[in-house]
Write a structure and sequence with these properties.
Mean pLDDT: 77
Helix content: under 10%
Strand content: over 45%
Number of strands: 9
Radius of gyration: 14 Å
Structural class: mainly beta
Largest sheet: 9 strands, antiparallel
Shape: globular
């Protein structure tokens, strides 16, 4: 396993752990202030949790089944809407 930091051309950063050249887990730091913690298994994203610092809210953790749900990739779908959770774990509907 290796730890490291990757800076994308647009200025976003990923800091985390790689295994055999594939991301294992880590955190994306986006230029707009968003933070996204993600976990992979054999190169496939299996979990993701985003934090919006402007709203100071965590979104619910997204599982592998939700990440790879074809309905979420359709333009205009309401499936992209998620439940918001405060930093203290309180659901905001």
């Amino acid at each position: 396993q290796d730890r490291g930091k990757y800076v994308y051309a647009n200025g976003d950063e990923f800091m985390g752990i790689w295994e055999k050249g594939l991301k294992l887990n880590g955190t994306f730091y986006f230029k707009d202030g968003r933070v996204s913690t993600r976990r992979w298994q054999n190169g496939t994203l299996v979990a993701c949790q985003d934090f919006d610092p402007q709203k100071r809210l965590y979104q619910a953790t997204i599982t592998k089944a939700q990440v790879h749900d074809p309905a979420k990739g359709r333009y205009g779908t309401s499936a992209l809407a998620g439940t918001m959770v405060s930093p203290r774990g309180v659901r905001i509907d």
